Amino acid sequence: MLPRRHSERGGAKNNGRQAQTRTAQEPNWWLTAAGRKKYNRETGAKLKAPVTGKVKKGSKAAKRRKSFCSRMKGMKAKLTSAKTRNDPNSRINLALKKWNC
Asked: Within a 13 Å sphere around the CA of 71, how many CA atoms are in the beta-carbon half?
């Protein structure tokens, strides 16, 4: 089921046009705050935003990034096909790029 648009809820209207929201049908919806919020609401998860900026060495964020990058690089090496591994728009490569791995 697709999420309802803002104008259908009676909320923010944009001069008669429907407000643009990302849906699960669009690529990379999981990289946005709205996508994470929707996922958390539907599943009860606590999905956090990626660590994208500069972080202090040894900080909680730096450890989280290091853990994520090592885990995803392992998945990329072992669990993906050559086509996916080399595709810059694959989900795994987009995630690694977003996290600055």
From this structure: 8
Q: What is the pTM of this model?
A: 0.63
Lookup: tokens for 98: 């977003």
Average pLDDT, the chain: 79
Question: 22 in helix, strand or coil?
Answer: coil
Indicate the Cα dihedral angle 69, 73, 76, 79, nearest 10°: -100
Identity at 85, one-letter amino acid code = R
pLDDT at 61 over 70: yes
Give a three-class secondary structure readout of 52-86: CCCCCCCCHHHHHHHHHHHHHHHHHHHHCCHHHHH
At residue 29, the 3 state secondary structure works out as helix
